[in-house]
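New to this. Look over this protein:
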Amino acid sequence: MPYIAEIDGKEHRIEIEKNENNFYSIIIGDKKYKFDAVHSEHSLYSLILNGKSYEIDLDGKDGVCSILIKGEHYVVNVINEKKKGLRTKSREHTIEGKQSIITEMPGKVVKILVQKGNEVKLNQGLIVIEAMKMENELKSPKNGKVIEINIKEGETVEGGTALMLIE
């Protein structure tokens, strides 16, 4: 099944195929990679790709994956392609009224891209949050107007915090 993975605010189409034993293929865009993966314990995986061995700590919940490879953290938002299409269509047609912009993970507010009173478009960048050394841009879920901003640049926020209100 195809998935959309968002990394650093950019979307990538990916597809993972399980071959035989512990062998897999992953297609990212138009490139195909083959690798061997073994689940060792809890969230740890041993991966061999292009003859190199990697230990990966992969922890995911509700479509948000936290990946640790060689000391580097990556946050990846993953949804299946079918749900993305449904989500986009439903956003365009059903979001009415006020919408809170809420961060899913704790982090630091790096940049606020809009001001109170600004008109915003669907999927327009609103806020940049740094979480686990990765910058994530939060986007508007609808066309509307910024009526409330509850944070300041440089502020640390907890997951689940309402950062902004769009009407």
